[in-house]
Input
Amino acid sequence: MHSMKRNPLLSGLMIVAIALGIGVSMTTITVYYLMSADPIPQKSSQLFAVQLDSWGINHPFDRDRPERAPHQLTYRDATALVAAKKAKHQVAMFESTLIVEPEKDKPYLSMLRVTSSDFFPMFQVPFLYGAGWTANDDERASQVVVLSKETNEKLFGGENSVGRRLRMGAKEFVVSGVMDTWNPTPRFYDVINGGFNEVADMMIPLSLTEPMELKSAGSDWGWKAESINSFKDWLNSESAWMQFWVELEDSMAVDDYKNFLDAYVTEQKELGRFERPLNNHLQSVMQWMAHNQVVREDNKVLVGLSVLFLLVCVLSAVALLLTHFLGKSEEVALRRALGANRLSIFGQHLVEVSLTGVIGGALGVLFALGGLQAIKYLYSGQGFDHLVQLDIFLVLFAAVLAWLASLLAGFYPSWKLCQESPAGFLKTQ
Output
């Protein structure tokens, strides 16, 4: 501390150099870390996105990568796979909207996920009150709804609303459950319609799609010119707009399900569908995110550039430390003459640069928080809010990174100082 106080300008510049490097690098590393993290590590190897190549014979779904199958399934295929029940759990789903009519407030448009009952146990959705609906509710097309925690607070003041009635789309729904805080990042089960969007306000059974004529609010892919004169025509069309996931416990179950998919497609070929060769896929959670490039290449480039910037800051700190330490050569020469060995001198100055790194790291965390808030402001409303938060792991990582950066910067100047011969300095005094 005395050494740093003796030359506060150089010490301050070193701290700022380390802090800037840590701040910039941690801003990009934090975003990359959260974007590429396993959103459901306890089950990610057992959950698989299903792809069926239902495209036309004239061209593949992706002309640049013809081996790729469509991202989503048609309604008729998704509902057929759900009904087959060949996996431990199977979930078909899509995004839609409904007008919610609260008792006291004005009606408003709400985002909802239309899905099957297996969604909740399959994705381990936590509940604050109640639970999801049952398979019987799916079969009967029961008018039940699961609310998000935020929606329950908005509509029912956060109270236990299980059994309460809610009017949506001119129909009465009964609340079966209220989800606790749940926001997997990325939103792996539907990266097609926004991997970093938040969970829908509410969820209702898939079997209500036809009676309520619920339309998709997400992406809708098609290849065939079809005459669509009614809602049922659209459901029976070759448009692919539904996400489909299965839970398979081991490699044998995966192989069995692949065989089932091949048999299903072969059967559909006999009906004149699935004109292309067999091209069915099962992608695990992490494979699915890589397949859909949830983490884009420009994010990886930014991380690389920020690490290079940190190295530039370290090199700047090396130059500043050389100036700072070599200015103490006469003092070190006197201490050496009084009996201090090179190792103790070297250790003392590494402690000094470590302290510089700790202070720089703390300041760098503040810079990183500012950078993340800037990102949050620039991309407000685009679903990135939960990607701009430092957790305890990232704070500890920043502290260790700052310490290592300071040691790296201080190693050569400390070693250089220890190599100076004390005799030459003592003769000049």
User: Anything to note?
Assistant: The chain has a mean pLDDT of 87.
